[in-house]
Amino acid sequence: MLNQNQINEISQAVRELTEAPSCCAEAREAAERWLAAAGTPAEAEASKALVAEMEDDLVTVDGLIAFAESEAGIGHFGAETAAAIAAHGRELKASGAAYCDCPACTAAKAILDFKELLLG
After folding, report:
1. What is the rounded distance in angstroms from the CA atom of residue 90 to the CA atom of residue 95?
2. Quick one: pLDDT band at residue 48, thresholds 50, 70, 90?
3. Which of 5, 34, 39, 105 is found 20 to 30 A from 80 (Cα to Cα)?
4. In b/e form, how buried is each residue of 80-110, taking b as 16+ CB within 10 angstroms?
């Protein structure tokens, strides 16, 4: 089980995820379950679920570009916004970034930085 300092650090990233407008419902649910379980006997199982969800949801720069340029991405964002997102993704890639920098992906990456602690 995590100590209180570790819980506090991880909780900050988890709360940032839940507050991110770009956070999907499944990630928000896993985050909320983890927050409720932190410091309890249910923490280990909630931690596994949170890590698994973050690994599924963290979008690579290449994935961001591909989605933004796809019919699904254009349908989701609209043509103009999708083109801007794809261009932003290419800028990220050119700068050496590996992942999308939206608030949800940034928080997911921060949570995954705690993976070893979470999985103990």
Report:
1. 9
2. very high
3. 105
4. eebeebbebbeebeeeeeebbbbebbbbbbb
Q: What are phi and psi of 119, to 5 degrees?
A: -90, -10
- Whether residues 75 and 36 share a domain: the answer is no
* DSSP H stretches of helix in the chain: 4-19, 25-37, 43-57, 61-69, 71-77, 79-94, 103-112, 115-119
Cα separation of 91 and 71, whole Å? 21
pLDDT at position 1, please?
82
Residue 65: give the domain boundaries: 60-100
Closest by alpha carbon to 113, among 61, 51, 59? 51
23-32 pLDDT per residue, tens: 999 999 999 9
Q: Mind listing the pLDDT tens digit for each residue in 60-110?
A: 999 999 999 999 999 999 999 999 999 999 999 999 999 999 999 999 999
Instruction: Give yes or no: residues 67 and 108 share one domain.
Output: no
Q: How many residues does the chain have?
A: 120
Query: Do 34 and 64 fall within a single domain?
Result: no
